[in-house]
Amino acid sequence: MNHPSGRPWLVGEWESTDLRTESAGRTSIAILGPASVTPQRLSRIAERTTDAVALDELSFAGCFHLIASVDGVVRIQGSLSGLRRVVHAEIGGVTVAATRADVLAALSNAELDRRRLVLRFLLSEIPLHTMNAPLWQDVHAVDEDSCLLLTPDGRARSRRRWQPPPDDQPLHKAAEALRTALVDSVRTRVTSGPTVTADLSGGLDSTTLCFLAARDGRPLTALTKLAADVGDDDPQWADLAAEHLPGLRRITIPFTDIPAHYSDVLEPLPPTEEPFPGVEDRPMYRAMAARLAAAGSQMHLTGDGGDETLMGGATGVFELLRRSPLAGLRYLRAYRALEHWRWRDIAMYARERREAYPEWLARRARSIIASPLDDEGASNLVQLPPWATPEAVGLARELLLEEAERTQQRGHNWTAHHTVLGVQLCASLVRAASPLYAAEGIRLNSPYLDDAVLHACMTARAHERRTPWAYKPLLVAAMRGIVPDRCLARSTKAEGSNVEHAGLRTNAEKLVALCEDSRLGRLGLIDPRVLREICSGFQMRMFTPYAISTTASTERWLRDQEQLVTTEAKP
User: 113, 227, 285, 301: which has the highest count of C-beta atoms within 10 A?
Assistant: First the structure.
């Protein structure tokens, strides 16, 4: 599609149902991705839009990129979660925006940024806003809460378009907004044309999506992964939900049919934009996508993002303590029993919540360490695994200190800040899994990561959105009358660390092989000898599985990037 200048405006390859465009006068608007807007409404929006900034107020269900050209000014934005993100780079003196950083890096011959690579095997979730940054020099991501504006004179600037709402709505009011947002979100997918399937894990989040997708007698096929051990009650809850979905077609995958963690870690796959967060789970996603494709799925719904949007962090108790000390103390005692908080940790959390985020990040960055993985105190630090080199530690410290100088808190308090960053971290996993499903012809969708859903959840009072006495009370209140009360009564969540440890044991030799001629080692960022000793000696400590996961993900990604270089070099 061309810009009024005559030069290309939109370049890409999409399914016809994924891209909609309308024009009126000197305004053109494109929507890329599932959205509830009709062609007629999009046309009316184009007719009345005379300023690209005015599109800040545009709101409808779905998860999509919005691209607009208004009187020569181009506006590009993704989703608040970062599931659909925008990146840009200067190529030949012209700013070019894209949905994938690797595409821009190839076009601009950008070099890898070693400092960004180090953060990919960081063990702390503290600097989340730095984690999703492109891994190439001079390729930049637009903040999720902002849009990119390209002016006719060639300038590019980022403009903030959203900020977290005040969390001041009582539970019943926020639940009404969430109900509307989720109903619209799922309806947008199931009425868009492709054949829709959904996860039915037994968890409250995926169960809700199944009941919404099957409303009004719509046919639905759902996927259930059977339990990995006797302590996992997910399948029983999935069976209970299925009893109330009479037209449901089920696909069940026995645990024995799921490849072990890390089983494909030596197998090259097509290069991707970023390392797969949790490469140990990649075989599972591939197996599930293959089963869904065989069942005819063209679009698959997952409950990813439910934990992050519906609950946020438990840190809301510290804001409550300042507003209502007696209620805050009651919550604090309950959280201390539930989360096994120590009094010294509580004192540290309370003190840190009084500190501005940039100063807090800078202080943490200065104390970065290469952790022995078994020090409980290390959980309160920014840490790299023990195989990280001193140079890697220095690079991470340098970058995080720079980030601290230009960062800002997301939202008016720490709870909003951690909610937003947690959602964005979850979105990075869904974004990475999407190509695995796309290889089977399936569009992966996570309605909980839609802008409208996130916004509705964040309006709820933090101490009511997450409490130590009830499980996901906001979703339960929103789904009364849609999801049976028996299903809404669940208060447990499965925990799968035993599966990860089994995968580490089973595929230890493959992890050791990944240490040979390590690309991270070539870059001077890890000591492969230390990593090999821990993998082969199975020296498991508190953070060891996570440390191996982040490092193996980054190593695998670097090796897959070499395929692209080799392919391009062939005559």
Answer: 301
Q: Which residue has the higher pLDDT, 186 or 373?
A: 186
Helix (H) or strand (E) holding 485: helix 485-488
Short-list 152, 200, 131, 170, CA closest to 396? 131
Residue type at position 199: D
Q: Which two tokens stand for residue 475?
A: 């979703």
For the chain, what is the mean pLDDT?
Answer: 89
Provide the phi-psi class of 278: left if phi over 0, else alpha when psi is between -120 and 50, else beta.
left
Q: What is the pLDDT of residues 390-436, one digit of tens each?
A: 999 999 999 999 988 888 888 888 888 889 988 998 999 999 999 99
DSSP state of 192: S
Residue 135 near residue 117 (C-beta atoms within 8 A): yes
pLDDT tens-place string over residues 320-369: 888 899 998 998 889 888 888 888 878 877 877 788 888 888 888 898 88
Task: Report how far residue 194's alpha carbon sits from residue 444's, in angstroms, rounded to the nearest whole number.
Answer: 12
CA distance 290 to 84: 24
Q: Pick the more confident residue, 93 or 88.
A: 88
pLDDT exceeds cutoff 70 at 442: yes
Reduced to 3 states (helix: H, G, I; strand: E, B; else coil), residue 296 is coil
Q: What is the CA radius of gyration of the chain?
A: 24
Q: Comparing C-alpha atoms, which of 65, 72, 63 is closest to residue 12? A: 65
- Give the pLDDT mean for 111-124: 90
- Contact of 288 with 261, CB cutoff 8 Å: no
Distance between CA atoms of 369 and 124, rounded to whole angstroms?
11
Q: Which residues contact 269 (CB under 8 A, 6 or more apart)?
A: 560
Q: Within a 10 A sphere around the Cβ of 127, how many other Cβ atoms?
A: 21
CA triplet 77, 79, 83: central angle to 5 degrees?
120
**Per-residue tokens: 390:** 């001193």
CA 472/CA 97 separation, integer angstroms: 38
Instruction: Show the 3-state SS of 386-423.
Output: CCECHHHHHHHHHHHHHHHHHCCCCCCCHHHHHHHHHH
Rounded Cα–Cα distance for residues 514 and 220 (Å): 41
Which CA distances in Å does 40 have to 35, 60, 66, 310, 551?
A: 13, 14, 16, 33, 49
